[in-house]
Amino acid sequence: MPFLSDTLARVKPSPTIAVTTKAAQLKAAGKDVIGLGAGEPDFDTPQNIKDAAKRAIDAGRTKYTAVDGIPELKAAICAKFLRENGLTYTPAQVTVGTGGKQILYNALMATCNPGDEVIIPAPYWVSYPDMVLLAGGTPVPVVAGIETNFKLTPEQLEAAITPKTKWFIFNSPSNPTGAGYTRDELKALCEVLLRHPQVWIMSDDMYEHLVFGDFQFCTPAEVEPALYDRTLTCNGVSKSYAMTGWRIGYAAGPVALIKAMGTIQSQSTSNPCSVSQYAALEALTGPQEFLAENCKLFERRRDLVVSMLNEAKGVTCPNPEGAFYVYPDISGCIGKATAGGTVITNDEVFATALLEETGVAVVFGAAFGLSPNFRVSYATADETLREACARIQAFCAALT
């Protein structure tokens, strides 16, 4: 009798974590490595948020809390949804989890049965398909390529829906591409979903505040109120507030779903960290001015990276609307050989050779469901990005 569960055979470790780990190991060994794999801001959590956590510790708020969040935080989340998204929720419709990932996982575990299908636009965040598999469902990737700026069309969504479809996972701005859907583009997708009442919408809005220029963020239940009763609107404090390690995510949706998610959480992690919840409370209710300042910083970095990568031979890099990623196409590099003699047969070989020959760590596109591409996280210092892109340019120029 095998010791490990059959479930484990259906999933794989996170490629983004693997790349970050390998880069860290090479750095520790004394190699000159620039890591562009980690999806987290390079600056510190704002001081007022850290101070709130310290106050919580000093006040003894270090005990168990309600399984799915303290009342004060739930109230702040309701206020955030109303203030920023025009969505009205009660605390009973809100759940707080240990990071955005747990929120999505809880929802899938609470709803997926064998044979249930979950539509996932590709390129996708690496964890979506594996979480569906862990929950017993069937991921249905639908490729949205560079020709549509990595955005799913209504026709593609319509064609992917079957009687077995339970969820449609929507992420805008996107990890890994940074692509953001306009209100009209999202409205067109919502019109398709209105025709299929068995399909629920899981909207991952984690990069809501990281949008550039005149792009306006919107979320499905806001754009189409008729979908409110079958939409789980998910968010968190990780990216916008530079709180990745604090592990607080949240969502709002129908009471029955929220209760079911709470049941899953009660038998897995129980409550999120109490101190982190008070920090998140300050994040949502405290000063928000720095969000716009950070956006300007990321927009400058985006422009730098897009410009330099488009100057690399064989590389095409679209200009994304948000998040802090770009997803260059390397079709022009496939079939060529590196200065070290490696033949570039796919994007994983490209990323491996790039790391070994130049010390630049990126994540290969196959991990996100679309090749030949790679993902760059530009959540790091300008001078570091400039040096990394110069190395990528030199690497591509040497291909023959």
UniProtKB/TrEMBL annotation:
What GO annotations for molecular function exist for this entry?
L-aspartate:2-oxoglutarate aminotransferase activity; pyridoxal phosphate binding
PANTHER family named in the record: ASPARTATE AMINOTRANSFERASE (PTHR46383)
Record Pfam families: Aminotran_1_2
User: What name does this protein carry?
Assistant: Aminotransferase
Output the SUPFAM superfamilies linked to this UniProt entry. Answer: PLP-dependent transferases (SSF53383)
Lineage: superkingdom: Bacteria
Q: Which reaction does it catalyse?
A: L-aspartate + 2-oxoglutarate = oxaloacetate + L-glutamate
PROSITE patterns from the xrefs?
AA_TRANSFER_CLASS_1
Domain named Aminotransferase class I/classII large: residues: 31-392
- Keyword tRNA processing among record annotations: no
Q: Which organism is it from?
A: Pseudotabrizicola algicola
Q: What is its EC number?
A: 2.6.1.-
Keywords recorded for this protein, A-Z: Aminotransferase, Pyridoxal phosphate, Transferase
Enumerate the cofactors the protein uses. pyridoxal 5'-phosphate
Record has Transit peptide as a keyword: no
Instruction: State how it assembles.
Output: Homodimer.
Family named by the database record: Belongs to the class-I pyridoxal-phosphate-dependent aminotransferase family.
Question: Quick one: a GO biological-process term for this protein?
Answer: amino acid metabolic process
